[in-house]
């Protein structure tokens, strides 16, 4: 009978060693136990962020302010200002190479008495909103909104889907009390295959289609195609992979400034030259396809390598963006750590932001792991495109993050709109209570810029910041 092997104290504390077969050599067991103890001690020595459980009521209060400022009180959908802000972000700085915009109009609301508090009407409107909101819940990158008393909107992060989506919506609504004889009659107009441009042009194209659908009568659909055909997924994959392989990538540079106009660091989104000798394209043209093709980790590593090289060259601080989906890729966090440790001086000048959204919610534990590893190398880690969930501020602070960047659509209009201004002030107070720095993204109005700094924002970026910098210079 074989004897039972007795483990040393260090080996017994190591879960890896305790699972090894008895045939494993003692030397390997001791080495694994020593490695585990060293890693455990290193993690234990890292500074632990303070607990912020008592801040949850404040986060809930700020969340209520967000809902007041950015949602329609009847349907719960984003309001017109917020929807148009997101649409401008998608077409100007978003992640989809093409998208579809659907406008839905409820025709016969007049006799129903369109008043807040009218229960029968609100139930009908809620059914329309529920049908639209099913897409953002199921399709990453989709978003809906209520534009006015009669009109709703839905943006989908793909081309060639407007007609099928419109027919599915009408079929669903005609089967509910929200539509049909005596109920709300629906028409849909859409612009399909939208590329980068002005949100006003996209709304005009979809609005023309909506007007033609309305002229045709209840439950009509009119689809207008925008631009030329869509490239196949394999073509996109090949172009992106070749650009990365050939080094046809570079970083753009946009200043992030404090209230005194001092440049704190450069925001550096990655550009790719998809065709040799062609222009370097913004992420809105290729990022979604890079993600679908599982090339996002390679894209993010390329951005980090370029940023470290630039920081070493001119000793200026830079911020790059990493997709939350990359955090879940095996080995990605360690690969970034290796690059940081290879360039320790440059790493001290680097900021890494992870995009907020559904993918980040699924990767919170990995974000904590990344924050511990990368911050130990001197990197500042934060979340970008935030603002949709202020409850997340508490979790991010507990993970030890350094800063949060608020998406432009959540603070646009803060100078003129009291509700938005109150929400922005609550954000600043909450972030500072969590020990987080707060940055406003994409500020395009000088009055908004002054207001946000007066409310306590630590930094900002966007056209208004660049204009102020040029005027100061």
State the gist of this model.
This protein is α/β, with parallel strands linked by helices and 473 residues long. It has 21 helices and 16 strands.
The portion of residues forming beta strands comes to: 15-25%
Radius of gyration of CA atoms, rounded to a whole number: 26 Å
Overall spatial form: globular
Ends distance: 85 Å
Helix content: 40-55%
- Ranges where pLDDT stays below 50 over 5 or more residues in a row are 1-5, 111-116
Mean pLDDT: 83
Count of distinct strands: 16
> What oligomeric arrangement do these chains adopt?
single chain
**Helix tally?**
21
User: Main β-sheet, in a few words?
Assistant: 8 strands, mixed
Describe the strand arrangement of the main beta sheet, using strand numbers: 7-8-11-12-13-14-15-16
* Secondary-structure class: alpha/beta
Task: Give structural notes.
It is a single chain. The chain is of the alpha/beta class. 49% of the residues lie in helices and 16% in strands. It contains 21 helices and 16 strands. It has helices spanning 9-12, 15-18, 26-45, 56-70, 80-93, 119-138, 162-174, 199-216, 233-245, 287-292, 296-314, 324-327, 332-342, 344-347, 358-362, 364-376, 392-398, 408-411, 418-433, 446-455, 463-472, and strands at 99-106, 143-146, 151-156, 186-194, 221-225, 249-251, 254-257, 263-267, 270-273, 280-281, 318-322, 350-355, 380-386, 403-406, 437-440, 459-460. An eight-stranded mixed β-sheet has the order 7-8-11-12-13-14-15-16. The chain has a five-stranded mixed β-sheet with strand order 2-3-1-4-5, sandwiched between helices. A three-stranded antiparallel β-sheet has the order 6-9-10. Strand 13 (380-386), helix 17 (392-398) and strand 14 (403-406) form a beta-alpha-beta unit. It is globular.
């Amino acid at each position: 009978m074989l004897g039972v092997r007795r483990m040393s104290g260090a080996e017994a504390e190591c879960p890896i060693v305790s699972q090894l077969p008895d045939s494993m050599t003692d030397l390997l067991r001791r080495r694994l136990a020593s490695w585990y103890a060293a890693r455990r001690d290193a993690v234990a020595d890292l500074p632990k962020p303070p607990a912020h459980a008592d801040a949850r009521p404040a986060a809930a209060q700020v969340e209520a302010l967000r809902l007041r400022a950015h949602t329609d009180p009847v349907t719960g959908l984003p309001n017109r200002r917020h929807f148009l802000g997101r649409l401008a972000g998608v077409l100007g700085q978003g992640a989809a190479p093409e998208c579809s915009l659907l406008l839905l109009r409820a025709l016969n609301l007049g006799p129903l008495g369109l008043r807040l508090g009218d229960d029968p009407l609100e139930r009908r409107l809620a059914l329309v909103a529920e049908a639209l909101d099913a897409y953002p819940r199921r399709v990453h990158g989709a978003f809906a909104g209520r534009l006015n008393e009669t009109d709703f909107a839905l943006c989908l992060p793909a081309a060639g889907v407007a007609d099928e989506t419109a027919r599915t919506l009408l079929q669903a609504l005609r089967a509910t009390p929200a539509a049909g004889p005596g109920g709300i009659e629906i028409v849909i107009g859409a612009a399909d295959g939208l590329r980068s441009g002005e949100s006003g042009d996209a709304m005009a194209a979809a609005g023309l289609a909506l007007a033609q659908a309305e002229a045709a009568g209840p439950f009509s659909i009119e689809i207008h195609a925008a631009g030329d055909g869509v490239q196949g997924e394999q073509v996109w994959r090949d172009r992106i992979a070749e650009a990365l392989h050939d080094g046809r990538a570079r970083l753009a540079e946009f200043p992030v400034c404090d209230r005194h106009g001092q440049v704190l660091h450069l925001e550096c989104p990655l550009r790719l030259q998809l065709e040799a000798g062609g222009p370097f394209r913004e992420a809105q043209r290729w990022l979604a396809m890079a993600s679908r093709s599982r090339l996002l980790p390679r894209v993010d590593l390329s951005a980090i390598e370029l940023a470290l090289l630039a920081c070493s060259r001119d000793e200026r601080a830079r911020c790059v963006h990493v997709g939350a989906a990359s955090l879940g890729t095996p080995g990605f966090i360690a690969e970034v750590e290796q690059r940081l440790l290879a360039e320790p001086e440059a790493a001290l000048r680097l900021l890494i932001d992870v995009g907020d959204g559904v993918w980040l919610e699924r990767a919170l534990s990995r974000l904590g792991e990344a924050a511990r590893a990368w911050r130990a190398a001197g990197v500042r880690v934060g979340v970008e495109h935030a603002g949709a969930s202020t409850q997340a501020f508490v979790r991010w602070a507990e993970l030890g993050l350094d800063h949060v960047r608020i998406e432009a659509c959540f603070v646009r209009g803060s100078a003129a709109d009291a509700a938005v201004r109150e929400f922005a002030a609550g954000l600043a107070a909450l972030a500072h209570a969590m020990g987080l720095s707060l940055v406003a993204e994409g500020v395009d109005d000088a009055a908004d810029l002054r207001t946000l700094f007066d409310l306590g924002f630590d930094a900002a970026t966007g056209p208004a910041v660049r204009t102020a910098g040029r005027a100061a210079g």
